[in-house]
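User: Is it possible to get a 3D structure for a protein together with its bound compound? The compound here is coenzyme A. I've pasted both below.
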Amino acid sequence: MTRSRSASSRSAGNALAASGWASVRTPARHPGWPARLGPVRVTGGVVELRKPRLRDGAAWSRVRMRDQHYLEMWEPSAPGTWAERNSNVAWLSQWSALRSLARRGQSLPFVITLDGAFAGQITIGNIIRGSLCSAWVGYWVAADLAGAGVATAAVALVVDHCFAVSGLHRLEATVRPENAASLRVLAKLGFRHEGLFKRYLDVAGDWRDHHCLAITAEEASGGMVAKLRADGRAGFG
Ligand SMILES: CC(C)(COP(=O)(O)OP(=O)(O)OC[C@H]1O[C@@H](n2cnc3c(N)ncnc32)[C@H](O)[C@@H]1OP(=O)(O)O)[C@@H](O)C(=O)NCCC(=O)NCCS
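Assistant: Yes, that's possible. Here is the predicted structure of the complex:
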């Protein structure tokens, strides 16, 4: 079993390396971190992923304050007002928590950029290794960039990275049934529907049902970015 898992990861890695898709430094205990992923060209421009920076605070806060109504109906409830949680000052604790989780090998937190400018975030969280080698993926993109293929490219990049470089075997995403755009992102990439989690997560002040969608390394062995290119949804950077 271990042999076939390594072989499938290796062959995905070879296919991706051949496409010149990522440059990575690989510390021993957290393979695949830190990393810069991309570029991938989509309708909206050139998508790249990089680690969050302390100086992202102003852009992060500006977008999230502007897009409160677009974002908060999909995000987990948390203490404090939206303004308190998304101020420029709040970024310091967010950034620090993300950096600490990444350093401990529990997360791969990325900022999404479009043509070099801050466009959103995508995070691989709750990384469990051992015989599970699994994690979740979560993402958001600025409202004024919606529908331009940005989130799809970002998810494709992290899926390829997790399977080919980080040594994970399964990724899952949980999505409210009402979130048609997010379900469409995952459908375009071939995520499989696994079930409905009833009253799963406190979002916007109530316990909300969520679909669970997942993908394994074997299902993504040809590479997600390669699939987007083959489907005519992405080009080279
Ligand atoms: C979900 C989200 C990340 C998608 O980002 P995006 O960059 O617009 O995604 P893409 O452009 O790659 O793909 C979106 C797809 O959904 C489709 N779509 C958008 N709104 C839709 C709707 N109401 N019904 C059906 N499809 C819809 C788009 O047409 C596109 O599909 P297409 O390429 O076949 O045309 C973004 O809308 C967002 O940040 N929403 C708020 C936060 C959130 O929901 N995060 C995910 C939580 S699970």
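The longest strand covers residues 117-128. The domain at 2-236 is CATH 3.40.630.30 (Aminopeptidase).
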